[in-house]
Every structure is written in C-alpha cells, then in structure tokens.
Design a protein that fits this description.
Blueprint (H helix, E strand, L loop, with lengths): L1 H47 L1
Length: 49
C-alpha cells in the first residue's frame, strides 16, 4: 500500500514538473516574440523618418 502511494505521488509530481516546464517555455517564447515585434515597429518608424 505504501509503495503504491509513493508511486502515485511521484507520478503526480513528475507531471506537475513537466507541465510547469512547458508553460515556462511557452511564456519565454511569447516574450521573445513581443520583443521582436517591438524591434520591427521601431525599424519601420526609423524608415519613415
């Protein structure tokens, strides 16, 4: 019974770690895309001057 509980607990923790890793990776990607978008806007503004 104890072993089953430990296996279930470790599986839940593993799933939580994997989920947080993928969420963090997606957020970092989104921040990078925003930065590139701002750079493109700035370049376009410089061209218009």
């Amino acid at each position: 019974m104890k072993i089953l509980f430990l296996i279930l607990l470790s599986a839940v923790l593993l799933v939580a770690l994997v989920a947080t890793y993928f969420i963090k990776k997606e957020q970092d990607n989104r921040i990078g895309n925003k930065f590139l978008h701002l750079l493109r806007k700035f370049d376009a503004w410089q061209m218009m001057r």
